[in-house]
Amino acid sequence: MPCCGSSRTLIVNYINLRNTARTLSDFNFQCLPKFLPCLGKARMKASMMDFCVDEILGFEFSGSGEHLIVNIRKYGQNSRWIAARLAELSGIEEKHVGYCGLKDRFAVTSQWYSLYLPNRCLNIADLSHPDFEVLSLKRHSKKLRRGMHAGNSFKILITDISAPQGKLEQRLKMINRFGFPNYFAQQRFGFNGGNLLEAERLINSARLRGNSKGQGLFLSAARSWLFNLVLARHITNYHDGVVFPLDETGPLWGRGRSKPNQGVALVEREALIDWPGWKNALEHTGLTQDRRKLFMHADGLKFNFLDSCQLKLEFNLPKGVYATALLRELVEFNR
C-alpha cells in the first residue's frame, strides 16, 4: 500500500473511534482546572495601559550588518500588522521583515524588528507612523526569527478586585515560591478557539500537512491543546489527593517518543486516550516530539496594592510562557 494512502487511512480510522467532530465546547480554555481555588473576581485590561509587555532579547546586536534593527512600541496593534507597515515604510517585501514573537494586541508592547536593508540607511523619521513609536535603531548581522528572544517583561495593573488583600498576598508568595501551571493560554488558540476548530477540520479531512503548507498556527494550536489536556489531568489528580509532579514535563506531540517516568506516562495516556487522530496527524507533519515544563516560575515577581481594589504586578517570563496562566491562579476576571 502507498505510504500516503496508508497514512490517510490510519488517520480516518482513528477519527472514527470518536464518531463525532469536536465543537467549541470541546476547546474551552476557561474550563481547564486551576491548581488553586479562585480568591474572587477582578478586571484585567480595563485600559490598554494596564497591560505592558517589553520583549527581552537576551543577546547584544553586532552593531553592523545588512539588517536594520528597529525597536517599536505599539499601542493596540498586533505584531504582524506592524511588520507589514514597516515593510511599506522601508520599501521592502514583508518577507524581509523579521521579529521574534507575537505580542498581545490590546496592550502597550515593545519589541524588536529586523529590516533587510543592505547598503541603505534610514532614520527614525523615515519609519514614523501614527499607530506606533520608533524607540531606537541598531544594526545587526542576522535577521530576527521566531523564538530568538529570551522572554518578556510584564507590568500589569489589575482593577476592581473583590478578593481579600491578605489572601492575595499569601497566594502571590506561594506562586513566587512554587510556580504556576504552565498552560498555553487562550491567545494561543485564536479568536474563540478558531485555530483549534480549523485544526480539527484539517485532521478530520486528513489535510493537516505541516508548517510548509502555511498551517503552522494550526499545528501549534493542536499540540498546545494536547499539552493543556495532560496538565489539566495532572491538576485534577492533585485535587483528588495525588502528589503533583512539580519538576516534571508534559508532551509537545510529534514523531518520536520521550521517556517520562512511569507515573507521568500513565497520566499522559489517560489524558489523551480520546485524541488518537490528533496525535497521529501531528506525528505525520514533520514535528518532533518535545517536552514542556508543567509548572513555571516568574522571575523577579513584585506586587504592590495601590489600594484595596488595585494590584500592580511586575515579573519576567521565558518565551512561550503566558502571563494570563499566572493571573488565572489569583482571581476570575470579568469579561
Characteristics:
Pseudouridine synthase; single chain; 24% strand; 10-stranded mixed beta sheet; globular; alpha+beta; 335 residues
Could you characterize the architecture of this molecule?
It is a single chain. The chain has 335 residues and is of the alpha+beta class. Helices cover 29% and strands 24% of the residues. The chain has helices spanning 3-16, 79-90, 165-178, 194-204, 216-239, 262-271, 276-283, 323-327, and strands at 41-44, 51-56, 67-75, 97-99, 108-116, 132-140, 151-159, 180-181, 249-252, 290-293, 295-296, 299-307, 310-318, 332-333. Strands 1, 2, 3, 4, 5, 6, 7, 12, 13 and 14 form a ten-stranded mixed beta sheet that branches. A two-stranded antiparallel ribbon has the order 8-11. It has a two-stranded antiparallel ribbon with strand order 9-10.
**Global outline:** globular
Biggest pleated sheet: 10 strands, mixed
N-to-C span: 52 Å
| Number of discrete helical segments | 8
Strand-and-helix sequence, N→C? HEEEHEEEEHEHHEHHEEEEHE
Please, what is the average pLDDT?
90
Low-pLDDT residue spans: 1-19
CATH topology-level fold name of the domain at 3-31 and 183-293: Pseudouridine synthase
What is the gyration radius calculated from CA atoms? 22 Å
Classify the secondary structure makeup into a structural class: alpha+beta
Count of β-strands: 14
Beta percentage is: 15-25%
The top level CATH class name of the domain at 3-31 and 183-293: Alpha Beta
CATH architecture of the domain at 3-31 and 183-293: 2-Layer Sandwich
